[in-house]
Amino acid sequence: MDDKDDDVDVFDPNIPEEGPSAPPPGWLDDIHGYQGHKGGEDDNSLYPPPPAYNPQPELNRNTLVPNVRVPTVSEDVARDALLKFVESKWRYSSKPARNLTFKELKPITVYRYRLETYTETRTSAWQFEPYRGQPVDGPQYGASPPPWDVPVSLPPRYTDMVEKVHVPHSSFVKLCHRCNGCGRTRCIQCHGRGKKRCTFCHGHGRSRNKRCTSCHGRGRKRCISCHGNGYKTCSVCHGSQNLLHFIQLTVTWKNNITDYIPDRQPDFPDKKFEKVTGDPFFVDESVLVYPIQGFPDQEICDVTTRLINEHLSRFSATSRILQQRQTIEMVPLTHAYYSYNGKDFSFFVYGLENKVFTPKYPSACTIL
Q1: CA–CA separation, 217 vs 307, rounded Å?
Q2: Separation of CA 158 from chain center
């Protein structure tokens, strides 16, 4: 086994084992206004806005809505909508849609109330990147501004967006916590030896009384993970030995939307309304909107009060309310009753797109 004796380890005791993937407690400095950060993946502090940043609602204020007219569809529009629907269903024949006889077109009043609250939320966490000589904006240049004083550019209103910015004067350089400033870490697969026991002969050099053909009788093979070096480039600093630490502020703009449609049509599934549009005959937009009064549908009036209060209490506790918008849409819905071949049927035409929902259609599975 002379080959085995010549097989010398490459183990270097000066190359450290892998350290923690995140800075350990006490590793990072405290930055005024951002105390309490521990570092690590779960470190993400939320900063509610100061009271002066959120508007306060006026008491006993409400909004009036004009009267509206219920939309209707003609027989031609209803028939065309049904024909278009039938064409999308290969199992349905178009003959009933062409030859049916309408008995009644019943328009139904459907209001959709929508409340939008556009908010800004700010969180921060320690981040780091390999230090390769880039500028270091540290505390020596001044105190870091509080989270809500860090300037950012506002996106277009009601647009969801996330922006990440370095907090000014929060940066500093430290040795990499993963490799302790070495730039390399000991290979965990071979424990720094550069070679691993042969899995074919289990390190004996022979298999079935013959020299092992996998390791050529050495009993060990070159470590694939580190290419036989016994070490790997540090996965955190990528060999730079130092890390630039800084506080990263995450600013999230989100349009929080709540829709409400009174459920008054047991034969029509309300979820169908989610994919169609209506006529927004009333739009009220301000920093804060107020409950609607005097609208013909009292249920809509009641729900505006509830949803506005819910949005205000939910979002003002953690975020800054930038703008609110409330809308009432008239969503067209017509129940079309018709007869075909002596039997009665019906379908619904809904939305400005004139979509069709029919629980039952004559001559199914008939291709003409």
Answers
A1: 77
A2: 16
